[in-house]
């Protein structure tokens, strides 16, 4: 399902060029609009469709399973924290509006800057714990599982 | 067109690859090295790169010790049976005992995890897997990495790691190129975390015909003479789906560094320095 661009909606901002993992969304040098330079190499990942601020990019299904007339549209909104899909079948029998959350918190605000949190002590550095452990392991007072705490022994080699 | 050579010097920690593993590594590295210079080199764009980039509606491995569901040794047993005994149990155990804290942090960052309405525990869809609204799984974790790293180089494909000529058995950085401009990038770094991924299911005893992985991560380190400890499975995904090595591995790797310990050097490879 390679992408294509509605030239009249595209303003050449380049968000799709930035995000495309396959590096095939380019800006046409003459028209200054984005286009898919190599539809065969499209991953159909929808990254550019979601990144486009003008909903100028659409995805065309292959004729064998999704003949012309269908559409799979998406709008991702970080501010509202939702993603909305509209899936239309060409026979008109199905027209689905799907809404799902993409985040439960205001975008990006609940991730701490680790440069500013209290630095780990020497004791912590020498331990086997990662950041936020042991607290976040179980969100109770339990510590890190070890072979000893779980009454286990490590046997050498391959066995059944 | 002439290509430029761009040198980034004085890096303390270079992370090659910004999938879920690399982003997790950068995050964890910032905590343990708060004043260090952390740089990420990623061949696509950090917001949408790696195997969960396009979204994943599940976290494939969650112990749920908090809800009394599984202990790490249960997962080791599963992995051992699944792989006919050929598994590094120490690594599997270590991954399993840390995985829950990563998931709990994701929830705090805003990743929508589904809950079982009756029990209040995370909604299961199998013994190990939990259900999430994961369209922005990667962008959320990428936010954390971008906050943690000093610099993120997008579109840089790292091709070789560099060893230090003056100090024995010491990494010196990495080189790569910009996939878009063709410019040559040199990263001089004291430590390198290789999270290039692409190695899951390369070797899997119970199936054939799969494994279209590029094994970039192995390709990078094998040339230095490192022995790849466990390429048989992804540690975090008992379902064996061909994707990421995962945030937990990234976090674990960031605790140490990937410099070859002498005993880990392969005797037949040119990188051997013992």
UniProtKB/TrEMBL annotation, chain A:
<keyword id="KW-0411">Iron-sulfur</keyword>
<keyword id="KW-0560">Oxidoreductase</keyword>
<dbReference type="Pfam" id="PF12838">
    <property type="entry name" value="Fer4_7"/>
</dbReference>
<feature type="domain" description="4Fe-4S ferredoxin-type">
    <location>
        <begin position="1"/>
        <end position="30"/>
    </location>
</feature>
<protein>
    <submittedName>
        <fullName>Adenylyl-sulfate reductase subunit beta</fullName>
        <ecNumber>1.8.99.2</ecNumber>
    </submittedName>
</protein>
<keyword id="KW-0408">Iron</keyword>
<dbReference type="InterPro" id="IPR050572">
    <property type="entry name" value="Fe-S_Ferredoxin"/>
</dbReference>
<dbReference type="InterPro" id="IPR038465">
    <property type="entry name" value="APS_reduc_Bsu_C_sf"/>
</dbReference>
<dbReference type="InterPro" id="IPR017900">
    <property type="entry name" value="4Fe4S_Fe_S_CS"/>
</dbReference>
<dbReference type="InterPro" id="IPR011802">
    <property type="entry name" value="AprB"/>
</dbReference>
<dbReference type="Pfam" id="PF12139">
    <property type="entry name" value="APS-reductase_C"/>
</dbReference>
<keyword id="KW-0479">Metal-binding</keyword>
<feature type="domain" description="4Fe-4S ferredoxin-type">
    <location>
        <begin position="33"/>
        <end position="62"/>
    </location>
</feature>
<dbReference type="GO" id="GO:0009973">
    <property type="term" value="F:adenylyl-sulfate reductase activity"/>
</dbReference>
<dbReference type="GO" id="GO:0051539">
    <property type="term" value="F:4 iron, 4 sulfur cluster binding"/>
</dbReference>
<dbReference type="InterPro" id="IPR022738">
    <property type="entry name" value="AprB_C"/>
</dbReference>
<keyword id="KW-0004">4Fe-4S</keyword>
<dbReference type="InterPro" id="IPR017896">
    <property type="entry name" value="4Fe4S_Fe-S-bd"/>
</dbReference>
<dbReference type="GO" id="GO:0046872">
    <property type="term" value="F:metal ion binding"/>
</dbReference>
């Amino acid at each position: 399902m390679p992408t294509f661009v509605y030239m009249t909606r595209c303003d050449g901002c380049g968000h799709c060029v930035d995000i495309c993992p396959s590096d095939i969304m380019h800006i046409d040098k003459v028209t200054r609009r984005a286009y898919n330079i190599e539809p065969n190499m499209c991953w159909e990942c929808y990254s550019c469709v979601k990144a486009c601020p003008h909903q100028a990019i659409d995805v065309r299904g292959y004729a064998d399973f999704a003949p012309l007339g269908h559409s799979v549209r998406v709008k991702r909104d970080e501010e509202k924290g939702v993603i909305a899909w509209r899936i239309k079948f060409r026979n008109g029998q199905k027209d689905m509006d799907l809404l799902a959350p993409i985040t439960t918190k205001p975008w990006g605000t609940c991730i701490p800057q680790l440069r500013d949190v209290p630095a780990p002590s020497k004791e912590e550095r020498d331990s086997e714990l990662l950041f936020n452990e042991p607290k976040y392991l179980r969100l109770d007072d339990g510590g890190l599982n070890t072979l000893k705490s779980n009454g286990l022994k490590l046997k050498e080699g391959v066995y059944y | 067109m002439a290509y430029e050579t761009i040198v980034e010097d004085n890096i303390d920690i270079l992370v090659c690859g910004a999938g879920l593993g690399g982003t997790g590594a950068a995050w964890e590295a910032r905590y343990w090295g708060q004043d260090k210079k952390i740089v990420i080199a990623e061949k696509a764009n950090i917001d949408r790169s790696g195997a969960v980039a396009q979204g994943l509606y599940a976290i494939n491995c969650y112990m749920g010790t908090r809800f009394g569901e599984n202990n790490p040794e249960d997962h080791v047993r599963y992995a051992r049976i699944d792989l006919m005994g050929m598994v590094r149990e120490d690594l599997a155990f270590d991954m399993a005992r840390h995985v829950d804290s990563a998931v709990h942090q994701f929830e705090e960052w805003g990743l929508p995890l589904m809950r079982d309405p009756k029990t209040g525990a995370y909604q299961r869809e199998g013994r190990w897997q939990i259900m999430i609204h994961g369209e922005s799984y990667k962008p959320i974790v990428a936010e954390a990495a971008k906050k943690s790293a000093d610099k993120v180089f997008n579109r840089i494909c790292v091709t070789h790691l560099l060893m230090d000529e003056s100090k024995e058995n010491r990494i010196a950085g990495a080189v790569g190129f910009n996939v878009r401009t063709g410019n040559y990038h040199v990263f001089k770094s004291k430590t390198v975390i290789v999270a290039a991924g692409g190695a899951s299911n390369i070797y899997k005893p119970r199936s054939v015909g799969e494994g279209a992985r590029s094994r970039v991560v192995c390709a990078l380190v094998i040339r230095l003479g490192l022995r790849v400890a466990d390429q048989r499975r992804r540690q975090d995904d008992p379902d064996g789906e061909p994707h990421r090595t995962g945030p937990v591995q990234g976090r674990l790797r960031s605790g140490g560094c990937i410099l070859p310990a002498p005993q880990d050097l392969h005797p037949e490879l040119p990188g051997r320095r013992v």
